[in-house]
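Appendix B. Raw example, untouched.
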Amino acid sequence: MNKRMVYLTVVIITAAGCAQVPPWKHHAGVEKKHGEGLAALPVTLPDRATGDAVEQPPDEEPGARVTGLLRQLASDSYKDRVNAYTGLEELIEGNWDSLVVERLLKARESTSDPEVKEQLGRLLAMFFTAERLVLKLRNEDYRVRGSIEEALMAIGTPAVGPLTAALKDESAHVRASAARVLGKLGDKRAVEHLMQALKDHDGQVRRYAAEGLYMIPDKKAVDALIEVLKDGNTAAALFAARALEKIGEAAVDSLTEVLKHEEPTARLFVAQTLGSIGDRRAVEPLIKALKDEDAGVSGAAACALGGIGDRSAVEALTEALRGKSEYTRGCAAEALGDLGDKRSIEALGSVLEDEVWYVRMNAARALGKIGGESAVGLLTKALKDKNSSVRAWAAEALKEIAKRDSGRTTGGGRNGTTGK
């Protein structure tokens, strides 16, 4: 980008504090040639019904007028540039429309020059203050709100204050959009406000507040996020669980307590989250959860134990192979394969006789991971299983064992080759 464009940027920004006076009237010496990124703006708009590009007369609707005015800002004519600036001000003041925002955003996104992109971001901030845009979030059209949210993102850090204030707006649309944008901005100042928004009576607001805290993980939000797991809003609980997973070890003790909660969905999310965190403090609570009356919870606890990788869970998982829930039996078989303890081979062999085909399949896969002569004998018998998927996985498991044994036989060099 040349010096002339940089100079224009300074001129425009300086003008932001001048009351209703085009910036070039303060800088008569501004140079003529500038704005290659603006000059490249498209002259067509997509038809909203068909998506086809159609010509739009510049005075017919605000979006097209903005395109023309932005192109005019790149004119060699001083008079044209003054008129373009004045025209943008009048358009925004007198005929506000979401397409105005869309055009500025499109201009910003279309240029590959980072300085031009920054200048257009500042134009957005100049013409559309965060306070003003937040008020427009009350629009019932989700497409309009989406454009406004993008404009607030373009404004960036200066938008944080108005957005946190908007979390108390009487409109649920405004509160939900504010929570969503705050999360995307990732500013730590928003954490306390998003924690309060987790208590909002509107489910969408709680959902986006939880998503925001997922994007800005902070251990001081643990207790507030735990409460979201219990309130029955599945979408909010999902993001609360993901946020707690990001927070990690600091959340483990609080999470294990929720395994005793009466809401099955809360217990399920907690079991999954503890498995993802992988902290060994969760092993004993998860072993107890293997006996949960809800099959989803007991199955998730089994998978979590496999993910944590603590072999002290082998005995409990072996017992779970004999449980009533086929889902839990299948998950327990998979977890035992992840743990890779040969003590579980005999029990997994018994599961190869289970009445449910996918439980037998998981047992075959687990035996393939564990390996050894006993596993080979059991898998060989499974090659005659009545279910084709079980037979296929038994064959695959035997190949895996043979490949590992071959690698050890050739001397243990890198990638199974003999080292010198």
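End of appendix B.
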